[in-house]
Amino acid sequence: MGSALLKGLSKADGYTLTACDLDPDALESVAEYSSTTTSDPDVAAEADVVIVAVKPDIVMHVVDDIDLSADQTLVTLAAGVSTDVIEPHTDATVVRIMPNLAAETGNMAAAVTQHSVTDDVRAILDAVGEFVEIDEQQMDIATAVNGSGPAFVFYLLNAMKQAGVDGGLEDEEAKTLAAQTFKGAAETVLQSDQSIDELIDAVCSPNGTTIEGMDVLWDSDADEAVVDAVSAAERRSKELAMESEDE
């Protein structure tokens, strides 16, 4: 996730990007997108905005290792780790975000804590996609919907691609058609004033091909399986939150 943000921001104007990691291979993988790479965490003291992009179980160790001042902003994206847990460990303003991998291409969907978000963080998020400001109590479900969501979409996209292959399309042909269909449908939802149900109806003509396929989906438990997947991800985010509070 950190690499995706870095790569996305490298295409935006006005940012000096410093990548810090103890793993030289990790630094090498993002060197071309960074102004500077280093293994020295003290460099964080020189930044206006510090993004801590690590796993939930080590985020507090990283925060304790960097000395930030009250005029700096600390952004975390660790699932389940609330701003309340982090704030006692730093003087910086703490903002929690949940982006996703599409930040790399400028198509990110992100959630951010509305009580602490700053204009600098808004500008960063806006540079790599779309974002919503939400109550921190809603971050677990946001983590499941937009943080874990790309994997669920990839799964469904792959199923549609495979159907194309099974029907005789070449693998690359089916992948292009399926991926562009998901992309176009998503953009239509974002730009249209119609509800999703209305958009479905707009594609379905009586006795046509689409309604035939939709009847199969409506008669299946496909929607319930997606809801269950999101719920499972949300539940795990809440478990991580309890674990971070216990520490």
Describe the structure.
This is Pyrroline-5-carboxylate reductase. InterPro entries: 6-PGluconate_DH-like_C_sf (IPR008927), NAD(P)-bd_dom_sf (IPR036291), P5C_Rdtase_cat_N (IPR028939), P5CR_dimer (IPR029036), Pyrroline-COOH_reductase (IPR000304). It catalyses: L-proline + NAD(+) = (S)-1-pyrroline-5-carboxylate + NADH + 2 H(+); L-proline + NADP(+) = (S)-1-pyrroline-5-carboxylate + NADPH + 2 H(+). Residues 136-240 form the Pyrroline-5-carboxylate reductase dimerisation domain. This protein is of the alpha/beta class and 247 residues long. The protein folds into two domains: 2-136, 3-Layer(aba) Sandwich (Rossmann fold); 149-229, ProC C-terminal domain-like fold. Helices cover 51% and strands 13% of the residues. Strand 3 (49-52), helix 3 and strand 4 (73-76) form a beta-alpha-beta unit. Helix 6 (139-147) packs across helix 11 and helix 7 crosses helix 8 (171-191).
Kindly summarize this structure in a few lines.
This protein has two domains: 2-136, NAD(P)-binding Rossmann-like Domain (Rossmann fold, 3-Layer(aba) Sandwich); 149-229, ProC C-terminal domain-like fold (Orthogonal Bundle).
Structural descriptors:
247 residues; alpha/beta; Rossmann fold; ProC C-terminal domain-like fold; 2 domains; five-stranded mixed sheet; two-stranded parallel ribbon; NAD(P)-bd_dom_sf
Rg from C-alpha positions? Answer: 21 Å
Bulk shape: elongated
Which segments are poorly predicted (pLDDT under 50) over 5 or more consecutive residues? none
Mean pLDDT, nearest integer?
A: 95
**SSE sequence, one letter per element:** HEHEEHEHEEHEHHHHHH
Question: Can you count the beta strands?
Answer: 7
Strand content: 5-15%
CATH topology of the largest domain: Rossmann fold
Count of individual helical segments: 11
User: Biggest β-sheet, characterized?
Assistant: 5 strands, mixed
Strand order of the largest sheet: 3-4-5-6-7
- The number of domains: 2
Give the end-to-end Cα distance, rounded to a whole number of Å.
24 Å
CATH architecture of the largest domain: 3-Layer(aba) Sandwich
CATH class of the largest domain: Alpha Beta
Helix amount, in percent?
40-55%
